[in-house]
Amino acid sequence: MTAQAPSLVNRLVLGLAAASVLVTGVAALALDALYRDLALDARRDVLDAQVIALVATAELDESAGLAPASIAEPRLTTPGSGLYAEIRDQRGQVTWRSPSTVGAGLELRAAPAAGERLVERVTLPDGTRVLAFSLGVSWEAGLQRPATFVLSAAESLEPYFRQLARVRSWLLAGAMLLMTTLVVGLALGLRAGLRPLRRLEQEILEVETGRRDALGAAWPRELEGVAQNLNGLLAGEQARLARYRTTLGNLAHSLKTPIAALKSMLDAGHVESGAAASQLDRMQSIVEYQLRKAVLAGAGSTVASIPISAPLADLAAALAKVYHGKGVTCSRDVPADLAYPIDSGDLMELTGNLLDNAFKYCRSTVRLRARADERPEWRRNGLVLEVEDDGPGIASADRLRVLERGVRADESVPGQGIGLAAVGELAAAYGGAIEIGDSELGGAAVRVRLPGR
Amino acid sequence: MRVLVVEDEPVLRESLVQRLRAEGFVVDAAADGIEGEFAGREYPIDVAVVDLGLPGRPGLEVICAWREAGKSFPILILTARDRWQEKVEALQSGADDYLTKPFQFEELLARLQALLRRSGGWSQPVLQAGPIELDTRSQQVRALGQPVELTAFEYRLLEYLMLRAGQVVSKSELTDKLYEQDFDRDSNVIEVFVGRLRRKLDPDGRLHPIETLRGRGYRMARE
Known about the structure:
heterodimer, A: about 450 residues, alpha+beta, Beta-Lactamase, Heat Shock Protein 90, 3 domains, 5-stranded antiparallel beta sheet, 5-stranded mixed beta sheet, 14 strands, rod-shaped, B: about 220 residues, alpha/beta, Rossmann fold, Arc Repressor Mutant, subunit A, 2 domains, 5-stranded parallel beta sheet, 4-stranded antiparallel beta sheet, about 40% helix
C-alpha cells in the first residue's frame, strides 16, 4: 500500500498560510520602519527649531560666554520637562544651560564645526534616552576674533518609545488578525469550493454500489463536463450490458426450438436430411442475427467525433465493386467536413447494411446523403443519413414489420430484413431512429437520425 | 475454368474442392496463406476463393501480394466475421466480392460464375455469341433458339470460349484451364472436342461459330 498524498485542502492552506505570514510580516516591518523614520524626523525638526530660536536670542555675556537673552519656550524653564538646551564654547565648556537640565545630568559630546549640524543619542544617568541636535555657530559680534560656539537642544525620547511600543502592538495585532482571517477564510473557501468533488466521489461510490444509476445534476461549471461524460459512459455501459443480456437471452431462447426439433428427430431414430438442414439453417440465421446485434459498439460519451465522408465513400466504392455487373449509379452527397461521434465500425455497419439493401433492390440508381442535424438544444450536431433507391420500395404496410423482423430471430426469414432491423437496433443504441419512406427516385428511402448532444 | 481455393479448415476445403470439381472446375487448393499466395502467383487460375483468416499469411495480405504482382483474376473472399469494415478493407485491397460463412454452396457457385462472367466482360447470366446462347445458371445451350445437348466437358469448353468471345484462346490455355495438372499436354484431345462442339452447334456448317487460327488457337465470334 502506498502512502496517501497530502490532501489538496491541506496543501493549499499550508502554502497560502506561509505566503500570508510572509506578506503580513514584511508589511508590518515596513510600516514599523516608516513610522520610526517619520517620528524621528519630526522630532529632529522640533529640535532644529529650538536651536534656531537659541541662535536668534543669544548674546555674549560679560565673561565672553554666550547665553540667550530670554527663553520663550516654557518647557526649557521647567526642570524634568524632557526638553533641554545648552551652549558650549570652543573648549567644550558649558556657557549656558536651560533651567530644565537641573538634576538631569545631561552630557553632550558632539562638537560640530561652524555651520555643521550633528545629531546624537545619549542616555541620562536615570536611563532616559535623549535625542540631541547640535549646531556649530561662528560668533563675531563683540569679539576680537570670531569664536565657535555649539548650540544644542535635546529632547527625551521616552514619549516616542512609548508611542512606538503602542504602534507596534497595534501592528502586531493587526497582522495577526489579517493572517488568521486569510488562513481561515482560505480553508473555509477551499472546503466549500471542493465540496462538489467530495459529492462527486460520494455519488460515484453510490453508482458503484448500485444505490444510484447515474450522477445527479447541478454541477459547477468546472465539473459539469466530467459529470456529463461519466454519465454518458455509464449510460453506454448500461445499454451495452442490457443489450448483451437481451442478446444472450434471445440467443438461448431462440436456439432451443431448433435444438428440440433436431433432438426429437434423433430420438425418433429417423433424421431426414432436408428437415435437419432446415433446422441448421434456422440456427445459423439466429446466430448471425444475434451476433450482428452484439458487436455494436453503441454510443458512449467516450466516442470521439470521426469524419463521415471518407468511410461512406469507401463503402460506396466497395459496394459498387460487388454490384459491378448490375451497373448501379450511386450518387453521394456528404459534406466533406461532416463529423459525428460514432464508432467507425458502427458507422460502417449502419451505412453498409442500408447501402447493401439499396444496391440489391435498386434497378439502377442509389442515392446516399448525409448531413448535420442542427438544433438549438444541442451543442454537438446530430447526424442524418439517407439512402434511397429506384427499386420496388417497401410497402407502407410492411414497413413496421421489416423493422421488427428479426427481433425474434426464430420467427424470421433468414437474410431478408435482418439488415434493416440491425440498422434500427444500431440507431437505437445511439439514441436515434430509423424511418422508412418513399423516395422520389421511385423506391425506398431509408433515413437514420442520430441525435446530437 | 480454373479456380484456386485458399481455406485452412480441411473439411470445408475438401468439400469445396469436391463440389467445384463436380461442377466442372479445375481446382487448385491451398491450406495456408503462403501456399495460397504462391499458387495464385504461379498457376494460370481464372478465379480465387480466399478465406480471410488464414494461417501463415492473412488473406488480406495474400490478396494485396497478388494484386501487386499484377494478377487481375477475380477474387471472392470468405469471412466468418460479418463486419462491413472488414469487407470494405478486403474489397479495397483488391477482392471483388465477399461471402459470409456459413454459406450455401449454390450461393458460392453463383458468385463465382458472376465474377467469371464479369471478368470476361459479360454482365448478364446468359452469354450470347451470334446465334449461340449459353445460360450459365441452367447450363443450357441453344443454337438459333434450338436446344443443344452437350456433355459436361463440351459445355465447359464452350463456356470458356464464350466467356473469352472475340479473343484468341490457345490450345495450351484450354488444357490448363479445363484439365487437372496431370493431363498429357501433347494430346490432341482439345482438337477432337472442338470438332465435336462445332458439329453439335452447327450441324449444317452455316454458322461457323468457332474460328481456328493456325498455330495460335481458337476464337469464338462475339457477334
